[in-house]
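Task card 7
Instruction: Convert sequence to C-alpha coordinates.
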Amino acid sequence: MDKIKSIVVFCASSLGNSNVYEDQAKHVGYTFAQHNVQLVYGGGRAGLMGVVANAVLEKGGEVVGVIPHFLNSKEREHRGVTKLIVVDSMHERKRIMNEYAEGVIALPGGFGTLEELFEMITWAQLGLHAKPVGLLNINGFYDHLIKFMDHMVNEGLLKQENRDMLLISDTIEELLDEMENYTAPTVTKWIDKNEI
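Output:
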Protein backbone atom coordinates (compact mmCIF):
# COMPACT_ATOMS: atom_id res chain seq x y z
CA MET A 1 0.00 0.00 0.00
CA ASP A 2 1.18 3.52 -0.75
CA LYS A 3 1.71 5.96 2.08
CA ILE A 4 -1.58 6.99 3.66
CA LYS A 5 -2.06 10.72 3.15
CA SER A 6 -5.35 11.32 4.95
CA ILE A 7 -6.94 9.66 8.01
CA VAL A 8 -10.30 10.10 9.73
CA VAL A 9 -9.99 10.28 13.51
CA PHE A 10 -13.04 9.58 15.66
CA CYS A 11 -12.77 10.52 19.33
CA ALA A 12 -14.49 12.18 22.29
CA SER A 13 -15.77 15.73 22.43
CA SER A 14 -14.70 15.68 26.10
CA LEU A 15 -11.23 15.28 27.64
CA GLY A 16 -11.86 12.40 30.03
CA ASN A 17 -10.70 12.00 33.61
CA SER A 18 -7.04 11.25 32.93
CA ASN A 19 -4.44 13.57 31.41
CA VAL A 20 -3.10 10.61 29.41
CA TYR A 21 -5.94 10.92 26.89
CA GLU A 22 -5.23 14.57 26.16
CA ASP A 23 -1.47 13.97 26.07
CA GLN A 24 -1.80 11.09 23.63
CA ALA A 25 -4.35 12.93 21.46
CA LYS A 26 -1.82 15.74 21.15
CA HIS A 27 0.87 13.20 20.27
CA VAL A 28 -1.39 11.77 17.55
CA GLY A 29 -1.77 15.24 16.05
CA TYR A 30 1.96 15.92 16.16
CA THR A 31 2.64 12.52 14.56
CA PHE A 32 0.16 13.21 11.75
CA ALA A 33 1.84 16.53 10.97
CA GLN A 34 5.30 14.98 11.12
CA HIS A 35 4.28 12.31 8.60
CA ASN A 36 2.29 14.72 6.39
CA VAL A 37 -0.97 12.91 7.12
CA GLN A 38 -4.02 15.13 6.72
CA LEU A 39 -6.44 14.90 9.63
CA VAL A 40 -10.13 14.49 8.80
CA TYR A 41 -12.35 14.75 11.87
CA GLY A 42 -15.69 15.92 13.25
CA GLY A 43 -14.97 19.64 13.02
CA GLY A 44 -15.33 20.59 16.70
CA ARG A 45 -12.88 22.38 18.94
CA ALA A 46 -13.99 20.71 22.19
CA GLY A 47 -12.49 17.69 23.93
CA LEU A 48 -10.05 15.25 22.38
CA MET A 49 -11.35 16.25 18.93
CA GLY A 50 -10.08 19.77 19.43
CA VAL A 51 -6.80 18.60 20.96
CA VAL A 52 -5.91 16.44 17.94
CA ALA A 53 -6.86 19.18 15.48
CA ASN A 54 -4.94 21.88 17.35
CA ALA A 55 -1.84 19.69 17.56
CA VAL A 56 -1.86 19.05 13.79
CA LEU A 57 -2.32 22.76 13.09
CA GLU A 58 0.37 23.75 15.60
CA LYS A 59 2.92 21.72 13.65
CA GLY A 60 1.80 23.06 10.26
CA GLY A 61 -0.33 20.12 9.18
CA GLU A 62 -3.65 20.12 7.34
CA VAL A 63 -7.02 19.57 9.00
CA VAL A 64 -10.41 19.00 7.38
CA GLY A 65 -13.37 19.32 9.74
CA VAL A 66 -16.85 18.07 8.89
CA ILE A 67 -19.66 19.16 11.20
CA PRO A 68 -23.48 19.17 10.98
CA HIS A 69 -25.32 22.48 11.42
CA PHE A 70 -27.06 21.31 14.60
CA LEU A 71 -23.79 20.51 16.39
CA ASN A 72 -22.25 23.94 15.82
CA SER A 73 -23.48 25.26 19.16
CA LYS A 74 -22.75 22.04 21.06
CA GLU A 75 -19.27 21.15 19.79
CA ARG A 76 -18.38 24.72 18.81
CA GLU A 77 -17.05 24.37 15.28
CA HIS A 78 -13.30 24.89 14.87
CA ARG A 79 -12.86 27.88 12.59
CA GLY A 80 -9.08 27.59 12.49
CA VAL A 81 -8.95 24.38 10.47
CA THR A 82 -7.62 24.22 6.93
CA LYS A 83 -11.08 23.40 5.58
CA LEU A 84 -14.41 23.31 7.42
CA ILE A 85 -17.36 21.58 5.76
CA VAL A 86 -20.78 22.15 7.30
CA VAL A 87 -23.37 19.51 6.43
CA ASP A 88 -27.04 18.80 7.14
CA SER A 89 -26.87 15.42 8.91
CA MET A 90 -24.71 12.93 10.76
CA HIS A 91 -25.03 10.52 7.81
CA GLU A 92 -23.72 13.13 5.40
CA ARG A 93 -20.91 13.90 7.84
CA LYS A 94 -19.70 10.29 7.85
CA ARG A 95 -20.08 9.95 4.08
CA ILE A 96 -17.94 13.01 3.42
CA MET A 97 -15.36 12.06 6.05
CA ASN A 98 -15.05 8.66 4.40
CA GLU A 99 -14.61 10.26 0.97
CA TYR A 100 -11.78 12.47 2.22
CA ALA A 101 -9.80 9.76 4.03
CA GLU A 102 -7.69 6.74 3.17
CA GLY A 103 -7.90 5.23 6.64
CA VAL A 104 -9.77 5.41 9.95
CA ILE A 105 -8.58 5.58 13.56
CA ALA A 106 -10.67 5.65 16.74
CA LEU A 107 -9.21 7.19 19.88
CA PRO A 108 -11.01 6.93 23.24
CA GLY A 109 -14.56 8.23 23.16
CA GLY A 110 -18.18 7.49 23.98
CA PHE A 111 -21.24 6.28 22.10
CA GLY A 112 -20.61 8.52 19.08
CA THR A 113 -17.04 7.29 18.66
CA LEU A 114 -18.14 3.66 18.88
CA GLU A 115 -20.98 4.20 16.43
CA GLU A 116 -18.62 5.82 13.91
CA LEU A 117 -15.93 3.17 14.35
CA PHE A 118 -18.30 0.24 13.96
CA GLU A 119 -20.01 1.73 10.93
CA MET A 120 -16.62 2.07 9.21
CA ILE A 121 -15.50 -1.46 10.11
CA THR A 122 -18.91 -2.80 9.02
CA TRP A 123 -18.53 -1.08 5.65
CA ALA A 124 -15.11 -2.74 5.34
CA GLN A 125 -16.56 -6.11 6.34
CA LEU A 126 -19.18 -5.75 3.61
CA GLY A 127 -16.55 -4.83 1.03
CA LEU A 128 -17.79 -1.26 0.61
CA HIS A 129 -14.26 0.01 1.13
CA ALA A 130 -10.79 -1.50 1.56
CA LYS A 131 -9.35 1.13 3.90
CA PRO A 132 -7.52 0.17 7.09
CA VAL A 133 -9.51 0.77 10.27
CA GLY A 134 -7.57 1.13 13.50
CA LEU A 135 -8.24 1.31 17.22
CA LEU A 136 -5.72 3.27 19.31
CA ASN A 137 -5.97 1.61 22.70
CA ILE A 138 -4.63 4.45 24.85
CA ASN A 139 -4.08 3.47 28.48
CA GLY A 140 -5.98 0.21 27.95
CA PHE A 141 -9.18 2.18 27.32
CA TYR A 142 -10.54 -0.40 24.87
CA ASP A 143 -9.37 -3.56 26.68
CA HIS A 144 -12.92 -4.62 27.60
CA LEU A 145 -14.21 -3.91 24.10
CA ILE A 146 -11.41 -6.01 22.60
CA LYS A 147 -12.29 -8.88 24.94
CA PHE A 148 -15.95 -8.53 23.97
CA MET A 149 -15.11 -8.74 20.26
CA ASP A 150 -13.12 -11.92 20.98
CA HIS A 151 -16.21 -13.20 22.82
CA MET A 152 -18.27 -12.50 19.70
CA VAL A 153 -15.85 -14.69 17.72
CA ASN A 154 -15.92 -17.44 20.35
CA GLU A 155 -19.73 -17.44 20.27
CA GLY A 156 -19.74 -17.83 16.48
CA LEU A 157 -21.37 -14.45 15.81
CA LEU A 158 -18.31 -12.78 14.27
CA LYS A 159 -15.82 -14.41 11.92
CA GLN A 160 -12.19 -14.34 13.02
CA GLU A 161 -11.13 -12.92 9.65
CA ASN A 162 -13.57 -10.03 10.12
CA ARG A 163 -12.40 -9.48 13.70
CA ASP A 164 -8.82 -9.33 12.39
CA MET A 165 -9.73 -6.50 10.03
CA LEU A 166 -9.74 -4.11 13.00
CA LEU A 167 -6.12 -3.11 13.60
CA ILE A 168 -5.30 -2.48 17.26
CA SER A 169 -2.28 -0.91 18.90
CA ASP A 170 -1.26 1.01 22.03
CA THR A 171 0.88 3.49 20.08
CA ILE A 172 0.13 5.71 17.10
CA GLU A 173 3.48 4.90 15.50
CA GLU A 174 2.80 1.16 15.49
CA LEU A 175 -0.80 1.64 14.39
CA LEU A 176 0.24 3.81 11.42
CA ASP A 177 2.79 1.17 10.44
CA GLU A 178 0.09 -1.53 10.56
CA MET A 179 -2.21 0.64 8.48
CA GLU A 180 0.49 1.29 5.87
CA ASN A 181 0.95 -2.48 5.49
CA TYR A 182 -2.73 -3.42 5.57
CA THR A 183 -4.28 -5.41 2.75
CA ALA A 184 -8.04 -5.87 2.79
CA PRO A 185 -9.15 -9.51 2.75
CA THR A 186 -10.56 -10.89 -0.48
CA VAL A 187 -13.43 -12.48 1.44
CA THR A 188 -16.03 -10.08 2.80
CA LYS A 189 -19.00 -10.98 5.00
CA TRP A 190 -20.96 -12.81 2.33
CA ILE A 191 -18.95 -12.59 -0.87
CA ASP A 192 -15.71 -14.26 -1.89
CA LYS A 193 -14.32 -11.88 -4.52
CA ASN A 194 -12.44 -14.77 -6.12
CA GLU A 195 -15.77 -16.35 -7.03
CA ILE A 196 -17.21 -13.30 -8.77
